[in-house]
Known about the structure:
Elements lengths: L11 H19 L7 H12 L8 H38 L5 E2 L5 E6 L12 E10 L4 E4 H4 L3 E4 L5 H7 L7 E6 L20 E10 L2
Antiparallel strand pairs: 1-2, 2-6, 3-4, 3-5, 3-7, 6-7
Amino acid sequence: MSLLPEVDLSSDEQKVSYGFGLQFGDQLRRNHFEGMELEAVLAGIQHQFLHQQALLTNEEINPSFQVIQERQKAAAAELANKRAALSEQFMQANAARDEVSTTASGLQYEVLEASGGDSSPGPEDVVVVHYHGTFADGSVFDSSVERGQPAEFGVNQVIAGWTEALQMMSVGDKWRIACPPQLAYGEQGAPGAIPPNTALVFEVHLIAIKS
């Protein structure tokens, strides 16, 4: 790993200048592509800021920009296809388990604890639940259980798999549900949290109906 450059940050001007650099660095990291060269980035900043003559015109840069964009799109599509195949494999394997039932939409559910109650939420209700969400490999992406605080939300304000499952549950039930991508976040995913074409698994405990 390369050493970070030493810099004097004692004055207000230096601190604010460093802050601008942090902001720009964060933008670069979020738009990073394979082969990005920091030296070329810094040269572009200096040429623009110091009003020097640019080494390339926009007409010369744009074709290369399009090449990189197409390369990124192709890589993202390939990765999305792989995730879709893995999700399908997981859903098929899970459906084969005796404990699992599958609805017409493709939602899979397993009753872990049955309360015996007969009070189920409707689509307009607000519910209180504890949940533990994982990817197919078991890694956790979100969990009210780990936070130690139940969640409250409208039944029709969540992903389709949840909306369907909650209306089949009774207060006090605890289910494990598996949502195929089309009942979760689909081809778009949830940026920063859920990749595209990803199956999701939740353990859901329906605690109460608030309205």
